[in-house]
Amino acid sequence: MTTWTSDELDQLGAIEELDIAPLRPDGTPRRPVPVWVVRVGDALYIRSWRGQAGAWFRAAQASGAGRLRAGGVEKDVAFVPEPDPALNDQIDAAYRRKYRRYPSYVAPMVSPRARATTLRLVPRAPV
Question: What is the CATH number of the domain that holds 83?
Answer without folding.
Answer: 2.30.110.10
